[in-house]
Amino acid sequence: MGEAKQFILSRIAAISECETVLVRAALGRVLGADAIAPFNVPGHDNSAMDGFACRFADLNENDKTTLKIVGKSFAGGVPHDIIAPGQCVQIMTGAQLPRGADVIVPKEETRLLPPFVEITPAKRRVGTHRRFAGEDLKTGQVAVPVGTLCRPAQIGLLASLGMAHVVVYRRLRAAFFSTGDELRSLDKAATDKEPLAVGQIYDSNRHTLAGMIERMNFEGVDLGIVKDDKKALTAAVDEGRKADVIITSGGASVGEADYIRAVLSERGEALFWKVAMRPGRPLAYGKVGETDFFGLPGNPVSVMVCFYQFVCEALWKRAGRSGDCAVPVFPATASTALKKSPGRMEFQRGVLSRDDKGAWQVTPTGDQGSGILSSMSQANCFIVLEEESGNVQAGEMVSVQPFEGLI
Ligand code: AMP
Ligand code: MG
């Protein structure tokens, strides 16, 4: 499975078109050019505390020190120029240090006796509570590298550099459609109010796919339901190739109504088929011109597992994101036994929770069939079981991959 993933990633090329957006609108977008610090942040040495800016040499370690207050400095105000020996300046957090001051004594360690201040004896060091010019970023430094997904921290950092506008890659366009003669569209169902005919099911995959694409902040292009018909599928693929990627569900198997592979081979190239994972087979990857094609299985859980385990990282790369975009996996204790046969990697669905000692434990969400979408809906993590692993006993450690992270 790892090989298949590496193969896909090696074939994916990032889009190159960029656009300029307001810094706030860059949230969830991929930075399209290095953001270089045009000045030092902070611009000047300043205080990290409300207190008194002093000369370290004046302070007694074992006895009180009395200093004359010669000024007051506020953040954003005019800084006090200089302090002579025996003098200090009352200073607020963020205010610029006067020349000569090399230590800040917090207000809590002083007693005010105007026009003097008495400083409690303590072991101090030069530079305590002093923020240095450029300690966050230095002029010319890459503050946020190209290919970074902009989260709130990056937005804040870019704003601290005075960047009202930033360059981001254009949003990725992901076309998707469902295949299957048994599928009924919810949009139609909402208007015609007819119950499902025998053997029909509502198309759920298009809605989970739309959701996953939207959560990645990409532009989804919904191409609807396509019948199990070669001509119709060909037309849908031809429409989909206007986008950067096409993602389909169903029809990728070896059944008599499964035409995806044939259409893909005709219109482009089918690069591989099938992966040793569960749920998930069959999974297709190919190219139609410049457009990457992902053919996911029809079963609703398989669609989600394949999307998260295969497609996600590839889409991030296509969207311009650099570095490792994989969601971390970490160990947790299995609270109950897990059934697993060696031979295929498995992504079971689980609920990650704290036991009474605060340690993380995971409990599977019941029936793990690939059509049981409620197993995904109840879960908050995948339980990742390696190919060679067999049954797991209660109390053993397993790997889990959470659905949610810090946002
Ligand atoms: P297929 O891969 O086309 O053989 O489909 C496998 C299973 O998934 C079948 O039981 C389908 O009815 C079901 N399925 C396929 N597409 C969808 C969909 N869009 N929504 C819900 N179930 C689907
Ligand atoms: Mg089908």
Describe what you observe in this structure.
- With 407 residues, this protein is of the alpha/beta class.
- 20% of the residues lie in helices and 30% in strands.
- The chain contains eight helices and 26 strands.
- The strands form seven sheets. The protein has a six-stranded mixed β-sheet, with no helix packed on it. The chain has a six-stranded mixed β-sheet with strand order 16-13-17-21-20-18, sandwiched between helices.
- Strand 23 and strand 24 (360-364) form a beta hairpin.
- Helix 4 packs parallel to helix 7 and helix 5 packs across helix 6 (260-267).
- It is elongated.
- The chain starts with a helix and ends in a 5-residue tail after the last strand.
- Adenosine monophosphate (AMP) binds next to helix 4.
